[in-house]
Amino acid sequence: MSFAWRQAISRAACAAMFLSAAAMVMAGPVRAQTAQTAASEDGAHVGVASCAGNNCHGAVEPFKTSRVAQNEYLIWSQKDKHHKAFAVLQEEQGRRIAQNLGLPDAEHAEICLGCHADNVPPTRRGPQFRLADGVGCEACHGGAAGWLGSHISGVSHAANIAAGLYPTDQPLARAERCLACHVGDDKQFVTHQIMGAGHPPLGFELDTYSATQPAHYVVDPDYIERKGRPNDIQIWAVGQALDLKKRMDALLDPKNAPQGLQPELALFDCQACHHATDQLQWRPRASTGLPPGRLRLNDTSAVMLRVIAQRSAPEVASELGAHLLQLHRATTEDWSTVRREAEAVRQAADRLIPLLASHQFARADALALAKGVIAIGTTGDDLDYSAAQHQTMALASVVAAMHLLGLADDGQIKALDAALRGLYDAVANDQSYRPESFVRALRQFDVTLPP
Amino acid sequence: MGDATRFVDHRLYGAGHPRLRFELDTFTAIQPAHVVVDKGYIERKGRVTDIAVWASGQALTVARQMTALLDPKHARRGLFPEFALYDCQSCHHPYDALHAPRPTDSGLGPGTVKLNDANLAMLRIVAARVAPEAAHSLGAHVLALNRAMAPDQGGDPGDVPGGVQREAAAIRETARGLVPLLAGDEFGAGDIRAIAEAVIAQGQGPDGWRFSHAEQTTMALEAIAAAMKSAGVVGAAQGEAIRKATDALYASFAGEASFRPDAFAAALRDFKRTIGR
Known about the structure:
The complex is a heterodimer.
Chain A: H1 11-15, H2 21-24, H3 72-79, H4 92-100, H5 110-116, H6 137-141, H7 148-152, H8 157-163, H9 171-182, H10 192-196, H11 206-212, H12 221-227, H13 232-252, H14 270-273, H15 300-312, H16 314-330, H17 335-358, H18 363-378, H19 385-404, H20 410-426, H21 435-448
Helix pairs in contact in A: 9-13, 13-15, 13-17, 13-19, 15-16, 15-17, 15-18, 15-19, 16-17, 18-19, 18-21, 19-20, 20-21
Chain B: H1 10-14, H2 24-30, H3 39-45, H4 50-70, H5 88-91, H6 118-130, H7 132-149, H8 162-183, H9 189-203, H10 211-231, H11 236-251, H12 261-275
Helix pairs in contact in B: 4-6, 4-8, 4-10, 6-7, 6-8, 6-9, 6-10, 7-8, 9-10, 10-11, 11-12
């Protein structure tokens, strides 16, 4: 597994090089029946072809006089892996995964289509709808039958939302939509069985992946006037809170309860096991209290959320930290305690979501959160590979926010981008990751932060 | 392998203890042996063939593995079983294209932690030649044990399936019964060749690409090669070719991180050629 760089300046330009081959594969097969990707009020899905006209979203060059660039379809179809989500099911890796799972093929399997296509029921598919379009426009923006007409006529963004357009510009709504596949839910979840059959692990951070998708919008005065100014730190923070809540939902899902001798391993940190036995991974961690030789739950979003909460809701941060410690300990004790502590962690995350979704993260927040994230690594609290990846992506969000909100001058942003490059280099590959190199890069980033 | 009072559990491994790898005949030789099997030795202690040491070592190892599996100290604590009883590389592998998942002979689906059954595979091979009924029984109980350990067997969270206890006890009984039989077997030239061919076939089968199986296959072939030499069924030139082929087998997995199933398969094909028909 490899991991590449995201830069605050010219984010779209570097986006293509960001994601690893593994991470670029879409979130993947799902466990059970068809995923109802749209809410019950979601209208019929008219298909990508309905959006892709030259005068709509399929322009070859950005429209200078329009409120949006109108080349959104082109970016999606040429650079965005969502476009390939269905096609990969028919490729060698998709066929092999299906075979290993005992499926005739992947492209007809409901457990795959929930996230690899816009798999709405046939009754809600318009004449131009094609399942083979993968994760198309309406998989994220909602079925357009109800609002396409008014949307074309140029009504306000608010009117489009009122008519049924999904508000992906809102951090919480975006998190809900993206994490439904990129973490999973009770209908669609990449189990360890599916990963064991060959599906890549899911790595996700909402703000980073929004940028590296790549984004098919430009935050300019038109955008800000219609949708407000996005704040990367808020998107990151809300994403972490919802990520944790969904992970706890998955842990509490009876389908994932341990049966036989093994629990659902997809909820645990990949590199806790997936390393050579002669490359020792265990380090003492105050936030888990786990002895050597134990699997640990994937707690990267919990660790991040505790840092975020220390800034905005210290009492919830303490509560979260205490329950997280108890949750880790419970995995070595008994299942009923796991359930109790997972529920407590879930509730803490749930309480934080509205706070973070409404908080205006300003310069002081940006610097304090950056220091908090840096401390996770430099104090040695969590230097596992997955944690280092998430610390890197968090700091990239901080830099992006400082850039977009004008919280640092161009010289400072340039220096921070160079320091970020060092962090990305240190986490470029899980097999060659060395914590000491990562800590050096963290310290370099720390001294580069403006006062 | 350990016993009731001494056992390297996964906590010790996690703290840095090296992985235990063992095969009785190979490790007796590379210890190195401080005995010379000459006339005086044979007169006083009798002739012990490498293949009998290997075979009875496999039976003893399996019996001890099952004892460890049945030991209440190693029962599941919290969410996890005692991982030291499992195949290390069923978890400890990178998830890249070189380690792409493939079906195994265990009957378990993808994504499950597999029991360390490399010794069981070897024991089944030798039993098939010496005691076919025991081999049949082992095959059935190993499949049932793996099935009993699979994560989709239902039951209340926290329960250790009763099937695990039952099947492990049955395997242990069979393995214990095989120990004296194998230790005392004469293993003629026909037996040695048949077992060599079966070990190679196992290495080329669905489980051959697993590191633990490749390791046991190689050590088995080294013991078999020593037995061939002692039995006088190979000449000097062929013996040298077999020695080189054995070295190549070892070289194909110098370290588990660098283990490449394709390189092992190629070395195994070469070994097969050197022993001829």
